[in-house]
Amino acid sequence: MALPSDTPPASTIVVVPRQTLSHTRRALASLTADARPGTRIVCIDAGSASPVADELARLARAHDVAVVRTDHFLTPNEARNLALGYVDTEFVAFVDNDIVVEPGWLDALERCARETGAWVVSPLYLAGAPGTQLIHHAGGDAHVDAQRQWFVESHGYQDLDPTEALALERTQTEEGEFHCLLVRREVFERLGPLDERLQSTLEHCDLCMQVRVAGGEVWFEPSARVTYIVPRFVSRHDRQYWILRWCDAWTETSLRQFSEKWALARDDPTVANRSDWHQLHRRYAYRPYVSPLNRIPGATAHRIVDVIDRLAQRRVLERHRASLARARPPRLVHEPSWMTVGSHE
């Protein structure tokens, strides 16, 4: 049941880039279409191109959304920590900018948090294009096996038809993903900000594991549903950020930090498995350029793609370092009527 329009909101929705910048417009359209009056949304624009930035500013004015912009790229955890400076509600609902939500998603997450006392609540995650989704994540495991000191992670019901979710019930779980995650704001007062050394992977696992170590609970709420839209291609506005987001340098830093923080064994396969996935995912950005290589023998084509990949990563990292060197402070593109906190001018 929706709350009366004059009831103070319990949550602030925080929208941050995941692997693209241009898709933020679609996410905001979905969020504002479902929002009840007075909903607070903070959107982080981390260095998007002018056409995207202009559209976000227009949407912000039309829907009273706070847009905070940096002229340089941010890691997802950097963006989330920046947004937390503008949050004073009981909960913060972290949302990646490549999802769409189903009606009632936020009410369901808040209700679960209140009825269970959960510190963190995750929805049912679907993936794919609307109408053709599969289950991406329905509760899961995230812990360190005490015997081998290996990290264990799993996604419940992954790749099954969404009709399988009809039988799912609210339950305690070990992790949710930052595609969409409701967190009590006091968690950050207890644990501090999100770990910015986790630049590209395992950020959600780290938070959920810290919460459980501190005595909090993570719950799964299947009546809240969101869909991660898998991109058909990487646009020119997104290519640089995509490559940076999944680059080897950010991946290696993240995995080293996670391994040291949670005392993982040297032979834990997590590092190799994540590195391999990131490499394959990063190369999705090159598809328009490497498709003609399909006519070339496999080994030669792989060597050419390796060269393209190394050069692209080097160029993107050099540009990013240069942009950081001349970076200006974050600034509010639009200050909404509800804003009472945040000082990043």
Explain what you see.
- The protein has 11 helices and 13 strands.
- It is of the alpha/beta class and 345 residues long.
- The protein is globular.
- The protein starts with 10 loop residues before the first strand and ends in an 11-residue tail after the last strand.
Helical amount: 25-40%
Strand content: 15-25%
Rg over CA atoms, rounded to whole Å, is: 20 Å
Total count of helical runs of at least 4 residues: 11
Mean of pLDDT:
92
The total count of strands amounts to: 13
Instruction: Provide the structure class.
Output: alpha/beta
Which parts are unreliable, with pLDDT below 50 for 5 consecutive residues or more?
1-5
Gap between N and C termini, in Å? Answer: 38 Å
The helix/strand series, from N terminus to C terminus, equals EHEHEHEEHEEEEEEHHEHHHHHE
What general outline do the C-alpha atoms trace? globular
Largest sheet: 11 strands, mixed
List keywords for this structure.
single chain, 345 residues, alpha/beta, two-stranded antiparallel sheet, 13 strands, globular, disordered N terminus
Record the SSE blueprint.
Elements: E1 11-16, H1 24-34, E2 40-46, H2 50-63, E3 66-70, H3 76-84, E4 91-96, E5 99-101, H4 105-116, E6 120-127, E7 134-137, E8 140-145, E9 150-155, E10 171-173, E11 180-184, H5 186-191, H6 203-213, E12 218-228, H7 239-245, H8 248-261, H9 270-282, H10 287-290, H11 298-325, E13 331-334
Short description:
With 345 residues, the chain is of the alpha/beta class. It has eleven helices and 13 strands.
